[in-house]
Amino acid sequence: MRKSYMRIPYTDVLAAPTIIPKSAAALSGAVAALHEFLAAPLSSSSSEAGPSTALLTGAGISVASGLADYRGTNGTYRVNKTYRPVYYHEFLHNHEARKRYWARSFIGWNTLHKAKPNATHFAIKQLNDLGLVRSVITQNVDSFHSQAHPNLPIVELHGYLRSCVCTSCHEELPRDDFQNELARLNPAWAAFLQEILASGALDTENPDERRAKGMKTNPDGDVDLPGAPYTLFRYPACPRCLTNPPPAGDGTRATVVVDSDGAWNPTSTAGILKPAVVMFGESIRPSVKIAAETMINDADRLLVLGTSLATYSAWRLAKQAKDQKKPIAIVNIGGVRGEDTFFVDLDPDQTGHQGARVEISTDELLPALVDRLKLSSTAHPAHEASDYILEARGASVFKDMLS
User: Fold this and answer.
1) Recorded GO terms, molecular function (predicted)?
2) Of 76, 95, 96, 75, whose CA–CA distance to 85 is shortest?
3) What is the pLDDT of residues 6-22, one digit of tens each?
4) What are the catalytic residues?
5) Mean pLDDT value of segment 353-366
6) Residues 148, 172 share a domain
């Protein structure tokens, strides 16, 4: 019987938002509303430095870096209804599924170093410099936040792609090192990757041009090569488990078997490496969940950026802030899951201090907001801001590589 899989939530178009306040439909009005949201004093704040804001971010803020989002107008779940990511249990128990995943990820990973943080990420750094933003919870696994503002506390809700993690001993391995091992174990694929790079197939963001070059890109850095021999692809075992096999459930030692080149053998009972992200069907670690909830508890208000809150792990954090009667502002292109509940009790005449709903790109809005705040005396600089030069945006094939 065919196995049923967990349904990807909210892949249909969500209801269009109601802009709050109405003046926020224009850039100047949106800047004014968010200025009031961030800078207005709150009677509930106990901090001498002024009210603190937590950010909750999603894939929409990385679009300007060349990474596609999921549920936006051109999001993958909108334009490719047949796409299905690999699920955690499938990856864990199916050797062939892991071959397919790592082969396609091997091709897509190369553009990681071309994708860089954009104006939104650096504007967040400046909001922290101004003493307005104290923490970030992100659903993104691209590590752009930690690159752009390493001193700002960050919870990576869904993990990160910069590492692989062993499913047995939980040891992490840098993804770059893993990529080198994949190239060593699969010389024909490594040569093929160099041909693809030389052809420029990974440099274009036009799906028609990629298809013309024999490639199809799905979400999360999944590069589909029709007819490719995925079954021949090899991947390494966890080096720690290979040296020191972990205990098995029956009190004996697990077995980790590799071939003559060091590739994981399916007779093994441990030593499987996976991307250090939360796959579909996998649970968020309790420590991460608690850290995110603590950030919401400690903040005076919540600013949501570039996410439809379609995943429950993110939506529940916004609901937590709402239940605590904290002001919420949402900036997202397109609808947001149950967003009316976040604004139902606002004064219709309020101009931003109670909440805001904006539908303007964050890479346009946030830098303008920072400029406005720098002219205001209501900000409380935490430390002097540094100047940053934005690097060129990368190719869109690298997104989150969850599949």
Assistant:
1) histone deacetylase activity, NAD-dependent; metal ion binding; NAD+ binding
2) 76
3) 555 555 667 889 999 99
4) 158
5) 97
6) no
How many domains does the chain contain in total?
Answer: 2
Domain assignment present for 394: no
User: What pLDDT, in 10s, does the model give residues 198-212?
Assistant: 887 776 555 556 556
Q: Does pTM top 0.85 for this prediction? A: yes
If asked whether residues 234 and 306 sit together in one domain, one would say: no
Q: Which domain holds residue 208?
A: 76-114+161-277
Q: Do 188 and 221 share a domain, yes or no?
A: yes
Residues 219 and 360 in one domain: no
Residues annotated within a binding site for Zn(2+): 166, 169, 238, 241
Binding-site residue positions: 166, 169, 238, 241
